[in-house]
Amino acid sequence: MKLRILIVISFVLLYIGTYFANKFVLSVLKFTFPTIFQGWQTLVGILMFRALYASGYIDNLLHGKDWLDCALWLPGMITFLMSSYAGSRALATLPLPVYFAMQNMVLVFKATADVIVHGQMTSFYSYFMLMISLMSALIIAKVDPHFDPDGYFWMCIHIVSLGCLESYTHFMQGKLKLRATDKLFSCYLYSFIVLAPSSYFLGDTLEAVGRFQYFYVSHFYVGCILSGVLGVLLNLCSVYLQELKTPSLMLDVGAVQAVAKILCSGVSLTFFDMTLTQTLVICLAINFLSSIGYIESSTHRRLQPNISYASMNNFDADVYSGDRLLGESRQYFKRQELQQDMIRLDLGS
Q1: Distance of CA 212 to the CA centre of its chain
Q2: CA distance 81 to 194
Q3: Which ranges of 172-252 would DSSP assign to H, the alpha helix?
Q4: CB 137 within 8 A of CB 102
């Protein structure tokens, strides 16, 4: 139990530290070159995975895995890259509370995946909370004093790509032999292979050398190192949280992440500039609370016993077959009794 609490606290602290480091580099230092920044983060991820493997903390990465499983996970790698790239572009212009509120729209994709893949219908309370979260996010975009069309454009791409990643992960659950660490490592590897040459061919490397003025400032390198290292640790901590999820513990990664978003949003107001209005604060509060309400209700619904129509049909078939066997056994005993009566009559005569 203490280990679980420690991992949850570590997840929240890593969540806050990761987004603070990213926000500092992207917004304060204005390092708006996502191919370089994301390429650096994925490189750090690859190196840390190799270091953890060499030290024995992680088993063989992709060792003995079928290449077909890796090929089937290719859409996951692509959507991971798209969500990381678009999220970096959006985070550079959007305040952290607004960014997290917009990111809660991914819950719509999760709800759709639960209905399509697992056949779990959304309850009225969950649907109501989901619609409130969605409507409040749209209102936040309308009343945001820092509204930036480019930032919201990339935020939309981030939401769609992250939602597709969540949906595809649900769809392929149990169909791939890849572990969670294998999937994460393959995403880092694929992203680095794509981003490394793209940073040169798209002109980000030459533009950064000519325009960026903080190349010789130590804060820039500290922020980049922290963003890369903390991001990898955050993803690994999320994997361990998923492995610790049990019905008795009632622990869900989404619920812990929702709490981390609220804490990170509150703390960010003391470090980063943000203009708040009364309407914006109310909409942010409604968005965060409704998201937690939906996550909690969906978690309870998954843990409840689910009797599907198929199981009911099987139950009816079993009852029918049992009645049929009972009727046949009765007819058999009646025939036996008649035969015994006929034998007695023959002996008596």
Answers
A1: 34
A2: 9
A3: 180-201, 204-211, 218-244
A4: yes
Pick from 22, 26, 20: nearest CA to 212: 26
What's the CA gap between 31 and 265, in Å, rounded? 22
Q: Report the amino acid identity of residue 77.
A: M
Model-wide pTM > 0.70: yes
How far apart CA 309 and CA 229 sit, in angstroms, is 48
Interhelix angle 180-201/218-244, nearest 10 degrees: 150
Question: 311-338 pLDDT, tens per residue?
Answer: 334 434 443 344 444 455 555 555 555 5
**Poorest-pLDDT segment among 39-43, 170-174, 267-271, 338-342:** 338-342
Crossing angle of the two packed helices 124-143 and 106-116, in degrees rounded to 10: 150
231 vs 276: CA distance, rounded Å: 28
Q: What is the pLDDT of residues 216-228, one digit of tens each?
A: 888 899 999 999 9
Contact present, 198 and 35 (Cβ < 8 Å):
yes
Concatenated DSSP letters for 131-182?
Answer: HHHHHHHHHHHHH-TT--HHHHHHHHHHHHHHHHHHHHHHHTTTT----HHH
